Predict the structure.
Amino acid sequence: MSVAFLLCAGALFFLAAIGMPIAYATILSSVLYLAASGQDLGIAGEQVIYGIYDSFVLLAVPLFIVAANIMNAGTVSEKLLDFCVALVGRFKGGLGHVNVVANLIMSGMSGSAVADAAGLGKVIIEMMVKSGHYTRGYAAAITAAASTIGPIVPPSIPMVLYALVSDASIGYLFLGGVGPGLLMAIMLMVMNAYMSQRRGFATDEKVPMAKIPGITVKAFPALLMPVILLWGIYGGATTPTEAAALAAVYALFASAVIYRALKLSALYGVMLESLRASASVGLVIAGALILNYVVASEGIPALLAGVLKGIDMSPMVFMLCVNLLLLVLGCFLDASTIILVIIPLFVPTCRALGIDLVYFGVVIVVNCMIGLITPPYGVVLFVINGVTGIPLVEIIKEILPFLIGLVIALALMTLFPDVILWLPKTFGYQPTGFLAG
């Protein structure tokens, strides 16, 4: 490693440690490397331009953000909640199950854990607390845990970012997230049922069976959105990016025309918020593109791949080590930073060890989503604290059982690759390597 790279790494850790946003820290430390190594500073801009404007798939990110914000601004989320209450609200720990199922359905629309936690989460937490059966900390904790399913089931913004750095197929990554998303939902519902029984939570009021058909009809336009998206992508009608545009248009149509809940004045606020969120992600991507150039210039990925291959590490041992590393990193770094900065270091090693990149990508994204609810830097925990006012300490006290459930789900999908790859293989995907399901 050169002196310039050591300066870059030192600057990155120092700037992040003093609280500078990771996007700015990454950009500044990368520019420092270019200056110290005597390279043209214009390379930084060149990398950003080529990386962003040559990648059509990145357009999907702001479009999915727009779709999620439109649905949260309209009454789509409320219709889905009514449907979920009718479906699973009658069981022990009913509103907890509703929380998980609603997030599972919403995950087929937004692709963002933060969007689900901020929009749907606020509504369901109020419902759970108002019922008098759940503490506010418990309601917030299961909401945070359930929101992690959002970026696993397609569409998924983190999977789009992973596809950018790995060249893996977005379509097959989306399909690979279905099994793990269902597994995570099952584990959270099992934990909720156990906790409800242990704490003696009262059963919530049951929706009469006669009302269920009417509730289903009202929720049908919202339930149709994931079907349209999946049909578009896997029926060959649209690319994933075009499907993201379709999602935004359909969300606008459903909220404004079908449900008549989105006014023109509110749409301006939705677009402004979407612009802010997209710009935030874009800055992280820009910083990562420049830093990836720095890392590639130093030959770090090839060096790491050579070292790991030289110690004769098996693919499964490598996957378990990566899981442990990312679970620790998730306590301090956000998902976008891990995927865009850390993961490119491991992709060459995966190829060398014969690990399927779709399988690897889904495991990585699940890892990163668990990090969103892991103290001390759990972004979703802060989001829920911000929108509900529930103290962080109350949320953190209740999050452990759900973290355990999600880690068990992560272990199962890591040890049994077919949990991820069964659906992609059904649609014609040919996995490669030792961990091919």
